[in-house]
Amino acid sequence: LAFHGDRSETSFDFKDIKLLPPVIPSKIVCAGLNYYDHAEELKMSVSNEPVIFLKPSSALIGADDPIVYPKNSSRVDYEGELAVVIKKKARNVSRALVSEYILGYTCFNDITARDLQKIDGQWTRAKSFDTFAPIGPWVDTELDPADLSLRTYLNGELKQISRTSNLIFAVGDLVEFISGIMTLFPGDVIATGTPGGIGPMVPGDEVVVEIEGLGKLTNHVVKSI
Ligand code: MG
User: Fold this and answer.
1) From ligand 1's centre to the CA of 81, what distance in Å?
2) Global pTM exceeds 0.90
3) SS3 for the chain, per residue?
4) Each residue of 111-149: pLDDT tens digit?
5) Ligand 1 centroid – CA 107 distance (Å)
């Protein structure tokens, strides 16, 4: 994977195109319990180090792609999150140098089968179903992530509202911590965690994650066939 600054002079109307996931990561590293109000609603305590887990890249979908409700779950939740996209190979990056390793930011929805998360005691199955990683609509390379509003809407109703300034571990903390564990490759995604207000979705629902300066990531939930 490599990112080039190439630009086409051709332009298209949004109604004539389909947006793909804006990046194909080797891995998606997610921060759990990174807003106090979300840790409270799950009745879990906040650690003094980030809690991280992985989502497979096979779960990725883009804007307007359907989220498929798995047959073996009866509680599937949205989790609106700010995502970081890595620009170049990163290993043991100190906080002060983190910005050199970041390509930009996008919206992410960390879809979770909450019932399976509770049954399993670890999170891999609950977080990893195909279509459980909506990302997009695009990567913004100019944005300052320090204090952006984040909102999640279910069928037009506001369900989550917070600011990235409320993150317990900020973007710099996460990149330093994660790159001290595993090498991050260009295109890898770090999902920074969700604020309070998570809740269930059912087939037919529309979920929108909106981040200030980034736009809206919209997806619909469909039944598994
Ligand atoms: Mg999450």
Assistant:
1) 7
2) yes
3) CCCCCCCCCCCCCHHHCCCCCCCCCCCEEEEECCCHHHHHHCCCCCCCCCEEEEECHHHEECCCCEEEECCCCCCEEECEEEEEEECCCECCCCHHHHHHHEEEEEEEECCEEHHHHHHHCCCHHHHHCCCCEEEEEEEECCCCCCCCEEEEEECCEEEEEEEHHHCCCCHHHHHHHHHCCCCECCCCEEECCCCCCCEEECCCCEEEEEECCCEEEEEEEEECC
4) 999 999 999 989 999 999 999 999 999 999 999 999 999
5) 12
